[in-house]
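Handoff note, outgoing to incoming analyst
You'll be picking up this chain. Sequence as last confirmed:
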Amino acid sequence: MLSVKRISDRYQRQAVDVLSSLLRFRTVGDSSTVYHEAVSYLDKTARQMGLTSQIMYPSTSRPLLVIKLDGQSKETLLLLSHLDVAPVSNASHWQYPPFGGYLAQGAIWGRGAVDCKGLVVVWLTILRWLQEYRKRLKTSIIFLVTTDEELGTGDSLRWVVERLSTKKYISCALNEGGGYPIQFGQKSFLTCQVGEKGHSLFFTTEQDKIKKIGPKKRDKVIHLSQPLSAVSHHLVKMLLPPLFTQFSPRLLTAILSWQQRNSPQQLDLTQLFFHQATIHSGQDSLSLDFRFLPDNNIRSIEETHQNLQSRLRLQGIRWILQHCSPSTSSPIHHSLYHCIHTTIKSICPQFNVIPHITPGYSDSRVLRLMGIPVFGFFPLIAGTPITNIHSDDEHLKTFDLYYAIEILLEIILRVTSTPTAGLL
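Most recent structure output, in case you need it:
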């Protein structure tokens, strides 16, 4: 399936063993002991591989690990992943115990296999290979493993990046968030996460105003279109003739939805073309939930709120802001995105790469708000189902683990062998 193979069977076997071991750590909830044990295990494993690693403590309960590989320059590529995982609602619904790390049916089973201990092992294996084969890189690499990503605060990543002596030399980063295969017509693609929607939550208790909001707007998702963003414009140009960029978002969504109707995993096109609003009814209050796209034409998040409230005809209501996380994006004309694209075309020509905006958010937004471009790409070309992430029976196919190591190693070799991080 790939036109390149650098990783030996010995590396592959160790990658499976390390992932199985990591999956046995119940890194969920508030049990600080388990996080310390998991990070200590990873630190010990990295040191046994000859890597330079350090445990750091942004908090007493949530340690993190920093692994460094020096290049010829201080310019740095950042690799991200995390050891904490989503909760398991009912272990009896799983084919194999969620914290067992079982190897069965050609896959490694357990909570966090894909999100995101699998990527931890991918980065660790790549760094071990670079260290063992003494590849002299022009660019340095820092691998950060956090244990609080699922909390959604980004506190640990923000804390450690601010303390890195090489912070100002970080040019770009690779993280989770993309890489799953989809089909449009007869063409196959891998997604690359280039941005995340913003999220704001408001509420009001003004009874007289609440009564004026009709039932048609309540407790349903409302999609608000906008002119095509750079990401959606690029995607449309890749999938459809140039004339189609003039079509409305609703028509484009219908056309592209029909094209991907036979794809085992599908792109949520509404996340690319629409802002999203939901008005939730309470007994004595209403809440207004916004998920909004990155929009370079809007100068501030306050202007985004005003614009969306106006389009919903909700002006004149005293909305109280309860939560706000801005939208973030990385430029698709960045050299790292270009490298991902050209690498896939070179070693995995049956696929192309398309940009994607996701509705949820990861630690990538922390770096983007610091001005560091981040691209989410964990390629799963053998078909590991992403629908099991945060659900029952999460697993990672062994071939997806092997292929991801090969693909991402090739990307890193190309990025770190030449001066990186510019806009093309």
